[in-house]
Amino acid sequence: MRAYNFCAGPAALPTAVLEKAQQELLDWHGKGLSIMEMSHRSKDFVAVAEKAETDLRQLLHIPENYKILFLQGGASLQFSAIPLNLLGKNNKADYIHTGIWSEKALKEARRYGEINVIEAGTDVDGKKAITSPETWALSDNAAYVHYAENETIGGIQFPFIPDVQAPLVADLSSSILSAPLDISRFGLIYAGAQKNIGPAGLTIVIVREDLLDQSKLEIPSILKYADQAKNGSMVNTPATYSWYLSGLVFEWLLEQGGVDAIHKINQQKAELLYGYIDQSEFYQNPIALDYRSIMNVPFTLADAALEKTFLVEAEKHHLLNLAGHRSVGGMRASIYNAVSLDGVQALVDFMQDFARQHG
Amino acid sequence: MRAYNFCAGPAALPTAVLEKAQQELLDWHGKGLSIMEMSHRSKDFVAVAEKAETDLRQLLHIPENYKILFLQGGASLQFSAIPLNLLGKNNKADYIHTGIWSEKALKEARRYGEINVIEAGTDVDGKKAITSPETWALSDNAAYVHYAENETIGGIQFPFIPDVQAPLVADLSSSILSAPLDISRFGLIYAGAQKNIGPAGLTIVIVREDLLDQSKLEIPSILKYADQAKNGSMVNTPATYSWYLSGLVFEWLLEQGGVDAIHKINQQKAELLYGYIDQSEFYQNPIALDYRSIMNVPFTLADAALEKTFLVEAEKHHLLNLAGHRSVGGMRASIYNAVSLDGVQALVDFMQDFARQHG
């Protein structure tokens, strides 16, 4: 049987997607070979690749003046690729710091340009929150403003899109496709696939065309957005199987009713889990109400000594991967699109029983 | 039914490997989730990753003072990563030019250092060959000497490992694991996975430890061999599913008797195909005897106007992807490890019939 998988990434994929992939793994559409055994330039694969792009464009209502790139290397390689692509004409950028991932991004960017860091973390009644953009000391003339829309480890998420002058660049690795998004507000968004898109090894970059031609001289050619855009993300062989699987996830999302529909379910899931935590005296979430992530829910137990028991018992109930990130400890339930409301209900039921037994 | 697939890459994978992957796609070893849904840091995935590395080490007899890295981005990203990693102390390298891929590598390297290009292509009785290393004007003090051991497009391969002073760096994308290799002769070898290893999206780098700490300042952190070596190729999330599939291919290779055994079959395949081409008046291979690739066999027809008919007829016989690279035209049969002797026999039978009909 399939367990409930709360892994932060690589994360759960829809069972229906895996079943389809399984069915056509050895012989794709009667062609006598696997999709992963086909040239990326073959008519069949190009059709699969283009359909994935079209479906993603539809799902997020991506305007025509944005290119969608299917790249390799993970969001962490984008931490370098972004300044290398965008700081060639103007060497200055603002980075909003709200947690571990935005910090990694800004540390890497500092190696390539003049980086103005805005410390945007704050506390509200002992809970973590994000300061208002009006208080941010933004540069007059930054090439872009970067932020992590959802901090996967901290479980803190922006409830608004910052209104800034410079092009907005956002890491959406753990929140893309979880809720409607007004792409036209951004210069660039990027996301590692392994949360809401597909398997690890694929990275999506959505970039406004007018930002394509300002790369720095030292950029590795493969990382150049302009070249990848011109070549349909095939300057070299892309991660074809990951691209195909992501396409299956996009089809599945459209079948579910698209991003609006999945967002409603995501809201129900989040309300159920946060609602239970808030009324319990045994569990705690460290984030102020307005800034809670809809995808990653960190929580602690009243007695930290019970953590190991909690994880072992959870596993017996087929509730997997609930340990928090090794850098912060505690628990974390990642409730991405592929995690069902049933799964969250099963988790809450278990948490309730566990609290009763050990509280 | 499964066709015979002569694609140059992404290329054929062993049917047994795909069957195993298919069987455990939704539920890996009864754990209730797919291997692609697991954290790369989970005990289960780390065991899979380490076994793949151990098996590869065994297959190629890789000495202990070499690190094996499982990276993303393709061999083309290594065209930048290699100079960025190796030219930090000494900014000079020699590049041996024998075809399209070695040319791409040297063009990218020129962006980062002083590159001395050795034109090593030559003609022997109208057939392409490689000059002897004794004639090469190598630098006195290069940081490394780079060459492409097998030119996938040209179908030309080194019948020897060049004996040079500086550390030898070799692109083995299309020949790794096809024949025994004395790794101790190299400073670094690298290979995109999508020919003899696994699906596209994974790149293997095997690097001698003493070369790890000489990177250039501008290198993107994710590309730094020293950091990836220290972190078991997990500085960020690796391409976990590709890593797992490559591990299945390594297991399959060991079951076949290892590289020595597969090499014998590869020799039989090459002898069968080249032998038939050589005695035919209808087909031609452009490479001199000693320099023919054991993996990629380009050939032309007596009448180029028949190429389209040849491809259409071949497909009717379940012989797929025989078109040459778009940059050179003609035909090409890539006969990697996963292409069986039966497959090559079926190709030769078809070629014979086609020549009889159209010759």
TrEMBL record, chains A, B:
Q: Per the record's keyword annotation, is Transferase included, yes or no? A: yes
What does the entry give for GO biological process?
L-serine biosynthetic process; pyridoxine biosynthetic process
Q: Which GO terms describe its molecular function?
A: O-phospho-L-serine:2-oxoglutarate aminotransferase activity; pyridoxal phosphate binding
Listed under catalytic activity are: O-phospho-L-serine + 2-oxoglutarate = 3-phosphooxypyruvate + L-glutamate; 4-(phosphooxy)-L-threonine + 2-oxoglutarate = (R)-3-hydroxy-2-oxo-4-phosphooxybutanoate + L-glutamate
Q: Which pathway does it serve?
A: Amino-acid biosynthesis; L-serine biosynthesis; L-serine from 3-phospho-D-glycerate: step 2/3; Cofactor biosynthesis; pyridoxine 5'-phosphate biosynthesis; pyridoxine 5'-phosphate from D-erythrose 4-phosphate: step 3/5
Keywords of this protein's UniProt record, alphabetized?
Amino-acid biosynthesis, Aminotransferase, Cytoplasm, Pyridoxal phosphate, Pyridoxine biosynthesis, Serine biosynthesis, Transferase
Domain Aminotransferase class V, chain residue ranges per copy: 4-347
- Positions bound to L-glutamate: R41
Q: Which family does it belong to?
A: Belongs to the class-V pyridoxal-phosphate-dependent aminotransferase family. SerC subfamily.
Q: What's the name of the protein?
A: Phosphoserine aminotransferase
**Source organism of the structure:** Acinetobacter qingfengensis
